[in-house]
Amino acid sequence: MFEDVRDLYNATIIERGRRPQHMHRLEAFDATAQGDNPMCGDRVRVWVKFATDGAIAETGFDARGCEISKASADLMVEAVQGRQPADARALFAAFRTLAQTGQCPACAEALAPLLPLASVHEYPSRVKCATLAWQALVAALDQPAGTTGETSRE
Amino acid sequence: MNAIPPLFDVARVRAQFPILSQTVRGKQLVFLDSAASAQKPRAVIDAMVGAMETQYANIHRGLHWMSERTTDAYEATRDAAARLLNARDRHEIVFVRNSTEAINLVAHSYGRGIMKPGQAVLISGMEHHSNIVPWQMLRDAHGTELRVAPVNEAGELDMAAFEALLADGRVGLVAITHMSNVLGSYTPAERIAKLAHAHGAKVLFDGSQAIVHRRVDVQAIDADFYCFTGHKLYGPTGIGVLWARRELLDAMPPWMGGGDMISSVTYERSTWAEVPHKFEAGTPAILEGIGLHAAIQFMEGIGYDAIAAHEAALTEHALARLSAIEGVRVIGRAQDRGGVVSFTLDRAHAHDVATLLDRQGIAVRAGHHCAEPLMRSLGLDSTARASFGIYTTPDEIDVLADTLGRIREFFA
Questions:
Q1: CA pair distance B261, B274, nearest whole angstrom
Q2: Domain locations in chain B?
């Protein structure tokens, strides 16, 4: 039983969902925002610290939700590490396409760490779980410097 | 049940629901999400299709055969709904889209038209958002207060606290669920109505869940308003019922304006049609109304005694089976309850549980069930919920329980 869900509930997702490596609040941060999925009650808050050149130096998150949303947030932290905000946004656009369709036409190497989530498109009601942390991240990146953001809704 | 449960042949009932023979992902469908929306029997499907094929026109206005026949069919639903609720008067039945619209109608018309700023609306701590948000909107627009009577650990209304909240005499309306869509708890409607009236308040019951499982008698309850929705009662979406005492409806101003709700219209002023038409502006859900009649007849054909006995047995079986699974926690332990069982699993979030159940063809709801304040008071952000209907079998509950055990192993 359940062999057919191993595409989504694979070893990486189970491990990251259960023991996220980056699920912590940053002591010092430059931006933060929350993502809410009002349909299911999932909630993710993301904190971001920037380097002097504007790149993402550190990201942390806190999540209330399912394995998929936590694992996705955890993988996201690693995927955006060291990237300029514009690159992080582009990566989200590519990841969203991957999550919604299973396809990544110009599948950049940067997307590789997120591939464990590729089959979420087979579970349409769960796509929002995978993109929630990214919504929060982008909302944080959208904030003018020195402000803290309000809720972003998927 | 004090009588011996009448014979109830669940196989015969199931045979009347075409969808139940469907397979999902190669598995036999196990549909345990009837509290969200119930499946439709052949009689409802045929009534709606039959009307479209043989007897359909707009109602209340045509001077031709088709319109007259369709009007008769639609208005017969009003008689059926009045009989279902044991209303005194068929004019006390107002058709609405669903319970949400019924509650909004009361909030607008009774709330703004009859209640005075400074009066309070008293709800319970286990309401669906549809019985919270309209009262917040009324509060903000009209200066009423919103009070919330707490729910105890078992998931029952705290009657002492409820009574205390009525004590100052400022509550104009008690608006409360007759059965929780999360906890399955029935509320003691007759006691609630008695207390409300003793303190000068009217009382509205949201019967969306309750009327699916048990006979409702608005006169016995001594209710002032009662609402339900067709699609949970094996009928179509888009049609529901607000019942209210005639004298209240007569005193209440209309809510929406338009065709069908007027007596006469000039540019200077309009006068209103008699109740219930005063509250039924515009072309209504004609086919859905006809479908609801078929659903009511279907329920009456089986009989509430049989339905209640069947579902009580199912619920007891489900509580026993789910409670026996390590790591499963049933949320809500009310003494008086219907066929809705919420639960959590220690090793997995409710969404993950629902996804894995779905892969086995088992449909449950997972999330906050449109009752966020209740979930917060329980210290939860989501539960999975299995809900039962007249077509549910003990075998299906066994499949759910066995699969939950396997899911727990999966997340070991």
A1: 8
A2: 10-41+303-410, 45-300
